[in-house]
TrEMBL record:
SUPFAM superfamilies: Actin-like ATPase domain. This is Ppx/GppA family phosphatase. Belongs to the GppA/Ppx family. It comes from Streptomyces cyaneochromogenes. One of its GO terms (molecular function) is pyrophosphatase activity. Keywords: Hydrolase. Residues 19-303 form the Ppx/GppA phosphatase N-terminal domain.
């Protein structure tokens, strides 16, 4: 069985074509198109016609490539850059009318739950109670659970690109006052989620996403050419030093560092600050870098629960009438059986260790 998944993120459109023998998605072919949608959106968050045109062309190319590799229509989804756009209904309608593809927009909590599923399958049951952190361009996903699916999941507006645009847009390197403001926002947003993680005391904490992978490489982890089975660990003390290293550097200087790619150099400092803040406030001293994340979670859920799961996903937008994303979601069962829109439990806890 050959299937494919198509991920529209803040920076790239990524296609993964996989063979699914024995219920495990094994990659056959991958491709990506660098769109940097997050840099093209307006100050009001609208994607706009020009960026939508670029997106349509990339998705059309991805659909054709999947077909060439013997896969049916990809399981296509978009994350925060489209989800949070005021004109997302227009974007999705344009994609559907031009390509025939129904691009799903997943709620942030659903992203966290599916990413957790991918991480759980990769890490296995020996990892025990598991905490997950994923820094994207537009949001930070956090989840915790003891089983196949998380007991709580949250999505916070702490994406590396979002915060870079909000706090570091005018100066390079950023001013100390701007970094202090970013840290205050991160602490405020992470307060409840980090308290829950400390209370649960996970046996294992993992990180997914390119942001964490590049930060781990900056801190001495094995490069990508060593393959997905090389053990990679990001320690909090090393990330603290990495933040200090990044602070005085310009974007061009950051791009010259090991692990920091040129397209992500601009947002690397914001990602490092958020990552360190999340680890410190949650009492996590180290993160295992997990190569399986949201795309693999979607493929696994599709393989385990069948095509009806994807077909029956509640459409985020009625393409004929442009119904709002959030209409009718409250109280309904989501992608893994959990309640869509559930919020993490507030738990009082002592101050984290330095």
């Amino acid at each position: 069985m050959r299937i494919s998944v198509l991920d529209t993120g803040s920076n790239t459109v990524r296609l993964a074509v996989c063979d699914a023998g024995d219920g495990v998605p094994l990659p056959v072919h991958t491709a990506k198109w660098k769109l940097r949608l997050s840099e093209q959106v307006g100050s009001d968050g609208r994607v706009g016609e020009e960026a939508t045109e670029h997106l349509v062309k990339a998705l059309s190319a991805a659909i054709e490539m999947a077909r060439q590799w013997g896969a049916p229509e990809p399981l296509a989804f978009a994350t925060a850059v489209v989800r949070d756009a005021p004109d997302r209904a227009d974007v999705l309608a344009a994609v559907h009318s031009r390509t025939g593809l129904r691009l799903r927009v997943l709620p942030g909590e659903a992203e966290a739950r599916l990413t957790f599923l991918g991480a759980r399958r990769w890490m296995g049951w020996r990892s025990g109670p598991l905490a997950l952190f994923d820094i994207g361009g537009g949001s930070l996903e956090v989840a915790f659970g003891r089983g196949r699916t998380p007991e709580f999941a949250a999505s916070l507006p702490l994406g590396a690109n979002r915060l870079t645009n909000e706090f570091f847009a005018t100066t390079d390197p950023p001013a100390p006052s701007d970094m202090a403001a970013l840290r205050r926002k991160a602490r405020h947003q992470l307060r409840d989620v980090s308290a829950r993680i400390r209370w649960e005391h996970p046996h294992t904490a993992v990180a997914t996403s390119r942001t964490f992978q590049q930060l781990a490489r900056l801190c001495g982890a094995a490069p990508g050419r060593h393959g997905p089975f090389a053990e990679r660990v990001l320690r909090r003390r090393d990330l603290r030093q990495a933040v200090d290293r990044l602070v005085p550097l310009s974007v061009a200087e950051r791009a010259a560092l090991p692990g920091i790619s040129a397209p992500r150099a601009r947002q690397s400092l914001a990602g490092a600050i958020v990552g360190h803040s999340a680890m410190k406030l949650s009492g996590v001293k180290s993160l295992t870098i997990c190569p399986w994340a949201l795309r693999e979670g979607i493929l696994l859920r599709y393989l385990e629960d069948g095509a009806d799961w994807w077909a029956d996903l509640e459409r985020p937008v009625d393409l004929e009438r442009h119904v709002d994303l959030k209409r009718g979601l409250d109280g309904k069962r989501g992608l893994d059986g959990g309640v869509v829109g559930a919020r993490p439990l507030r738990v009082a806890a002592s101050s984290p260790t330095p």
